[in-house]
Specification:
- The chain is built from 24 helices and no strands.
- It has 458 residues and is mainly α.
- The protein has a domain of 71 residues.
- Helix 5 packs antiparallel against helix 6, helix 10 runs antiparallel to helix 11 and helix 19 runs parallel beside helix 21.
- The longest helix has 18 residues.
């Protein structure tokens, strides 16, 4: 310390707290006296100013020292509740839980303070974020020690934390069942949290029991309640039961949301109940939920997987009439489905539609059509599609080149030259096929009469 400065504990701060250590606490005042007599009795600081000073500290340990300094220096000084609240949360968020608990004990011992319920809600959430579910559960019972009634919101926060880990699902259920002892009434969110937890754990029977109990206790389920149970049923392939819940929703005046329909349509298609899936899709708009691209594409894929591409085409037509434009996935699924059934002319029509609408086709879409045409001996059309692909700037896969080259060499070698008249960019993957293609052509040339006659002319 420079010799021209007095001892540090004689420096006065505006709150008249003698600072005994060189901690990073800085006090500001317009024009305070620099020195004072250490024996002079200091005036009592303002609780509101102490609170502001604590709240302004980014370091929770410095804030704690200010808190303690004010208490220890002035025995008659009483902190405001705001100071307790702010400091407890600062310590909790920085994971200084022992210090936080000591302040909570101090707050509990002084009955003059009225504790805000939000304090415990924040502490429970902080314990959850710190992955300390047992501490969060203990906080619920700490609320009772303050002669306070826990809130339903606090119950729900704890349940959410507990059910997020499978091993705490049973303690969560026990807390839920005992909530009435503490005059806490579970609401629809409480039931939804537990139903979601049990469905995720494949305990559908308990989830269904909770749903029924909700109705018995005059707790009105909401759309989320139905969605949780229907998703659980669909995951267990109980799609018929899920459809019954959909009907129950509609009969009770609920409007199912988009996610409910997505789950149900996907499950119906996977169970090959395509007629039912299409009926659900058709009545969506009537029941207040407009089908979106995901709903339509789900049903299109279901039809194409079962070799019913024409029905998939009908769904595409329905989309356009209902104001939902097909996207690249819609058309790609249709082209693949038509090709798998050997309907190459219709597949080519949809491919042309895609190009006319400005879609950038993936190489796999071209390949499935080219490969299909080659397999049925329609080499000219396969080459035409390949030429169209090159002109559109798309890069064929190596296997696409090999399919076309092999068929051309077997049928008419002259056609290969017509294909290769298209300008090929350096990125075109025929370069990758070069070695294999050369070996293949040489091999074919030795056995192909047309190739030999062409070679003799050259």
């Amino acid at each position: 310390m420079p010799p021209f400065l007095p001892p540090f504990n004689n420096i006065v701060n505006p709150l008249h707290l003698p600072i005994k250590t060189l901690k990073p606490v800085i006090f500001f005042h317009s024009s305070p006296p620099l020195f004072t007599n250490p024996n002079q009795q200091l005036p009592l600081p303002s609780p509101s100013r102490i609170h502001k000073l604590i709240a302004s500290q980014s370091d929770p340990l410095v804030a704690k020292e200010i808190f303690d300094l004010a208490s220890n220096t002035h025995p008659r000084f009483r902190h405001s509740y705001a100071s307790f609240h702010t400091l407890i949360l600062k310590l909790a968020r920085s994971r200084h839980f022992p210090l936080m608990n000591s302040l909570l004990s101090r707050l509990k011992s002084d009955r003059r303070y009225t504790v805000a319920p939000s304090l415990f809600t924040h502490i429970i959430r902080i314990y959850g974020d710190a992955d300390l579910p047992e501490k969060a559960l203990k906080t619920f019972y700490t609320i009772l020690e303050f002669n306070m009634k826990p809130l339903t919101k606090q119950l729900n926060v704890i349940l959410e934390i507990l059910v997020s880990q499978r091993r705490y699902l049973r303690p969560a259920f026990d807390l839920f069942k005992s909530a009435h002892r503490y005059d806490v009434s579970p609401n629809v969110e409480s039931y939804n949290i537990l139903m979601r937890g049990f469905c995720s754990n494949d305990d559908l029977s308990i989830a269904h029991h909770l749903f029924d109990e909700m109705l018995k206790r005059d707790v009105v389920p909401n759309v989320e309640s139905y969605r949780i149970l229907m998703q659980g049923l669909c995951r267990k392939s109980q799609v018929n039961k899920a459809v019954e819940f959909l009907d129950d929703m509609l009969n009770k005046g609920f409007v199912p949301d988009s996610l409910i329909y997505t789950t149900l349509l996907n499950s119906l298609c996977r169970k090959k109940k395509l007629r039912e899936a299409y009926k659900v899709l058709c009545r969506m708009k009537v029941k207040g939920c407009d089908p979106d691209i995901v709903h339509y594409n789900t049903v299109i894929l279901g039809f194409c997987r079962e070799n019913r591409a024409h029905d998939g085409c009908k769904v595409v037509e329905d989309m356009e009439s209902n104001g939902c434009l097909p996207n690249l996935v819609s058309y790609r699924t249709i082209v693949g489905g038509l090709c798998s059934q050997g309907l190459y002319d219709e597949a080519r029509t949809y491919l042309d539609i895609m190009l006319s609408k400005g879609f950038s086709l993936h190489a796999s879409v071209w390949h499935v059509l080219i490969n299909g045409l080659c397999n049925v001996g329609r080499v000219d059309e396969a080459c035409s599609v390949l030429e169209c692909m090159l002109k559109s700037g798309e890069v064929p896969h190596l296997c696409t080149w090999m399919d076309v080259a092999s068929r051309i060499c077997e049928v008419e070698f002259e056609r290969l030259e017509e294909v290769l008249k298209v300008e090929i960019e350096p990125c075109t993957r025929i370069v990758e096929a070069g070695v294999d293609l050369q070996e293949y052509l040489i091999k074919k040339g030795r056995t192909n009469a047309k190739f030999k006659s062409r070679k003799e002319k050259v």
